Fold these 2 entries.
Entry 1:
Amino acid sequence: MQLREPRIWLVHDPEDAPASTRALHALADLGRGIAVVRVTPGPQTLQSIAADLLKALGKDHSLPGTMRNGEENWRRASVWMSGERVRQLIVDRAETLQPKRWQDFIGLAAHCGLDLWLVAHGGSLTRGQREMLDDWPLAEVTIKQFLAMHPNPGTDTDAEARVKPDGPVEPFPAVPRSDFTTFRADCHLLLEPEAYERVEGEMRYAADLTRRWLSEAVTPDSAAMKEHLRELIEGCRFTDLALARLRAAQAVCLVAGLLVTVDLERLAASTRTARPLIDEQLVRELRRYACTRRAAASLISCLTGASPEAISRLNVNDVAEAEVRIAGKTFGVPALARGVLVAHIHARLQAGAGPDDALLSNAHRGSLGERCTPRTARRSIDDVARASGLMLWDERSTKEDRSNQQWLRRRGVSVSVIG
Amino acid sequence: MSSHYLNLEGARTINTAWFKLTQLAIAEIAEELAMGAFHGDAGLGKTFAVRYAATALARADMECTWVEFPEKPTMRRLTAGILRAVTGVEHRGERYRLITDLGHVLSERPRLLIVDEAQRLNRDCIETLRHLHDDPGTCFALALVGGNDCWDVLSRYPMLRSRIFARVAFEAMTFDEVLQVIPKFHGIYEHADPKLLALIDDHCTHGNFRNWASFTKRAAKLCVTQRAPTITEALARSTMTLQGGSRAAA
């Protein structure tokens, strides 16, 4: 126990005004280490408050690997809190919880070394709650004092992205395979208005970038144009997105005297087998899993391109917060994805795993468990891939060099000067 | 458009003060996605006024969902009932799961959720509605419509009372209001003697719209039978007798 005085705060909100509640909820920001638990009304079991806690951490209980067992979910929540470096836990509607549940939260705060804010709205506390609090170091503040101590960082774009951790990756609409001369018109004809709007937005983006590039280029030649096209489609997760951007660029380039051709089959195959970038979108998707094994296995797969067989052979000491060592190679873990790995390492250490024990196991309810079979590892990755719509691993995964000159050719894109 | 009580033919919608306030309040809570309470004795036109306002909102593309529970619902029944009303599909599962699912459904698009007979809700149900409404992800306005002790129930809970953005407390029409409103309500009263209207209100309808509608349904039939375009005292007394009005009135 590392609880120091005063790490538990009781926040009184006798007026129970909606503005205070809104301000309280707006503090939720996992990026700043603040989680706000909204207690669901009704009988409070460990299962229900564990589910509320996981929800506060951005976990989606409809995803594979979600358990109904309260203790297991509570344990998962604690490892995610350590992994995501949650430093402040705010429990809204704490007055509706039984003293036993307060005890659970206090125990969690002690275990994870965080500040616990129990926000009690309306009238006074029950005798049981009062008596329980007498046993712990506690400071009491009003909701006004609490909000003054927690200034809202505002609504900058980064903050908005941080407080919305549970948005699934939305697949790009399937677009027609028409030539660039009729592509936009066909999209307009065939797609739903919302889908068309999205496609047109991407086309406009690509056309604007290409026009700007052409106006800034001294002598637009095919080699320089290839660089531009590569930048345009390199981060695309979906073939259809890459195609929409390329079609727009083709139209703009033709006017400038550059003929860009696209081999659709090669473009589709290359997008399908390319390893996804480890970006905010991917990490957000992985963070939606309460199951740390699925999230960690998928992250390692994206990071290293290694097969599920190789990943299932990893031991705890092959992985650290900032790197993964696999088949004699070391891969650096981007800072934004480290929480996912740390949470899983915590889960394994909590289960009693040593450095030479399996990183991925079939452990349940905090037991050490057996090493995952390659099939289980593959299923963990496939579950995430299916739910997110992302291709996380494929038999034909390539580990191509990003500076490779043949990059565009592999994707079936060629450029020639026609005038 | 909302139908009148007993589908009364020839009845006109009257812009009473409460009716106008309700239209304003519903439009306001829908715009702010806030909570509103509409309460008063049975038969004062709460449901009619709220339905009328909801229809206007629906024409402006705001989805309106009306729910009513026949008896005191549990949290699970409340949640399942709203889910069914919103999605048109029966949802099964445990309470926690249903609340989570309802939270997702109520996040999809702005809508107005109207809970009629809200006095039947207990503390747990009210807490559930508050929980859903407070959820930063959801976007719905909540209109709580209720009879006699609706406001007593709602105001007992500070977590709900402090969240009521608009409140319309319906009251029975005063005698002066009856004289102003009823001649416009139906053709048989258009040229009726005010003293006769006073007699009917005093002995039978008591400023209550539902009573007036029920009285008018019978009176209009008698008027047709007697080929009288306007209600007469004799017809009124006959109707009152049929209505179960006092012997003195008859």
Note: Chain B has two domains: 17-169, 175-243.
Entry 2:
Amino acid sequence: MSGAVRAVRMGALALLGLSLACANPLWEQPPPQVREAPIVRPGSLTRSTLSNGLQVLVLEDRRLPLVSIGVAVRRGAGAELPDGAGLASFTAEMMNRGAGDRDARALAEFVDAMGADLDVSSGWDSTAVTLSGLSRDLDPLFEVLSDVVRRPRFETAEAERARGEQLAALEQAKDDPGTLVAWHMARALYPDHRYGLPSPGSPESVKKLTATSARDFHGRIFVPNDAILFATGDVSAETVMAQARRRFEDWKRAADPDAGPPPPNPAPAGGRRVVVVDRPDLGQAQIAIAHEGIARSFPDRIAAALMNSVVGGGGFSSRLMDVLRAEAGLTYGVWSGFSMRRQPGPFQVSTFTRVAETRRAVDMVLAELSRARQSPPSEEELTRARTLAVGSFSLSLETSDAVMGGLIDLEIYDLPDDSLDTYRARVRATTQAMTAEMARDLLHPERAAIVVVGPADQLVPLLEGLGPIEVVQP
Amino acid sequence: MRPSRRSRFPLALVFAVAALLAWGSGAAADAAEDPGESFEDPAASAITTRLPNGLVVLTLEDHATPVVSFQVWVQVGSKDETWYTGLAHLFEHMMFKGSKNIEPEQHARLIQARGGRLNAWTSQDFTVYFEDVTSETLPLVIALEAERIANLRVTQEMLTSEREVVLEERRMRTEDKPSGRAYETLLATAFVAHPYRRPVIGWRSDVEVVTVEACQDFFDTYYRPNNIIVSIVGDFDTDEALERIRETFGKLASRGPIPRNPTLEPAQKGERRADVHFDLRSPVLAAAWHAPPSGHPDAEALDVASAILSGGRSSRLYRNLVYEAQQALYAEGGYMEMQQAGLFLAYAGVRPDGGIEEVERLFFQQIALMREEPVSAAELEKAKRQLEVSLVSGLSKAHAVASRIALDVATFGRIRPLAERLAAIRAVSAEDVQRVARTYLVDSQRSVVRVVP
């Protein structure tokens, strides 16, 4: 952070006053050239690999007396089979419930006493243990990290508690219309694939989870040759490397984890269809419209993302927001996006409106998706989408923790190390022809699944004619 | 206005916000070991400038990243509404619907076209507009923010369309959401007279009929330079920014004293209860006790009590209700301060296989324990450490620092040094925690709301 109070420079002020006096309103002028700082400050990033294959990434940032350290592996819920759904979430929770010499209670006491945070969480494609706290606690933080990563206790009594909580949370989530719509959309799009169930699993699959299944899963996915150790903040690379060697060098190499289930069917069978999830008490319908999308490794993902930005991903600059919110006042928000996972996840549009306006909102979304194919992003729209992408990229990487998150994401998906540095140039190199191609290739309103959560007795008549309607309970 | 931001604090976020709002004043103590010793408080370099029209400008340069956060804190919130509720929040929307020289939605598009992030939020006390941008865009941000305050255009057409958007926001946040129902009912129960009893987003019937004239009058009354704090933190040049602000905001006309709500909440003389029926699987228990307003010397002791009850998996509420009894999915309690009154809020999500009576019994048992026994030395130290680390962590983003210094100036009339905050936290004793529990967390001062099937 900056140092002492700056002196006022009268000379500069006088010059500035002159330049202001002659200017047109700033909103009528073209955007200034954006100054692009390097994503990683020179000399601050260190990469190494231990003899057991464990990669180590250190990003030094001395501004605050804080550190974040962690270990990430390249497997998560996507590596489960459908009948074991929820195992990755369950394993992550179990790792937080006792490790090394400390049981669940002692571990919580030890972490909280440092004012630190311990988070173990799994996504579709990765699982990560993260600890953040004061840099002066680096040694005990590393002690906890190595215990949680290498020596979780997986006690039977804790498994009972964790399973009960996971089941209760699955039931509680049905109280949230936004969660319900996402879960039922997954089921509609991927009936025979792991992606068809929520990442925390289903009641049937979670009931079968045990301490042993968590121990086995942990043993398969937490292997040094498929893991990344990371540290960010007020710490030197030398100090981190010393800790890494001391606490992780004797971690034994093992077989690379298998990739999990095969990819979903690239274009799930069936034309447009409608699922109504009956919640008679709701005054607002939660709406999702989705079809198959693309994987994280999709070569033209930047062009796809820019196309999506114009259609519905670009917040207040998007066509969908313009039509549904600004012009029609139908909703508070509408959003579209690709869920890019190791295997192709969905392309989804989400919104909500008062029940009586549901059909109008659905029709508007479908019409905008069709229009995007016939009238793909104009040069002006694409220019806006490019600057939005470049600018929000810079803003999103304001903290070193965020930069490290970006670097780990590249490792998780085996993308080039320099992807963050080249991102802005790749965005600028994306042409109108490329985004037009993406709109034609990737938007398929004619075969979208439409899922609506709300009172079925009102919704079913409104949605007739869009496709076969199935009414289900939450 | 913006989907990504909350117009008020849903229960799940109350405590994150309480943590931000809860740094009250307190006597400086001996400088014990603290994480703040080893680095300089960035806010120590902030400059406060007051323009002749009363506008306060806070500037703090930090060139570590190319980001600058620009925030306009209008000191008006739902407590200042006199006829239609939800007016303050409605402005959070109308301010994006065009002014004399800017078309509807153009403000947002111009900022987004430069890659900026913008939004606004409203609370009981403040309406805050912000842009987080790269430094090249700051001049445009200043011009646009000044333009809409100088020349806002409230038309019937825009109001008609935007009130529907607000009503959708209300359905989403409150009417169709168990925690939203609980929070709205809890405030309406805990306060009988003070306008803090109203939902920030407004009652549905008011939003449905509010008029252009009422909007214009509200705007003319409160959107005045002598009621605004501008806070700028990050990668920019102070002299240049101040010059631009003088050229724009500096020309706004001030007015005399800003009218303020005169109503005080009368003392509560016994527990209040309300049930809300809703189709749900996981009932919600919410409770509130009256607590002091922002800037009160008891703030740190209440924060420490909050951390002991809710800070991490070793906290009393998690340990007892979630982990041991397996009755709740979550259970937390914390101090929320507002300018004219505070609340100590508590909430729990009852497991679908649990019982709300049991959750309530266990919850209030833990509150009673805070009154009856002093907390242990280890718990006290742990809570203080958690508060200190979260305070330091809050300095990592320009946006958070800009919010902190603006809130400081609104609350204390000055930027409160980090060292002073840390010292006040370190000075809290076990007796202090027990004293504030006995003073505020008493049964007769309690309001309890249950959202049940």
Note: Chain A touches chain B through 93 residues (CB under 8 Å).
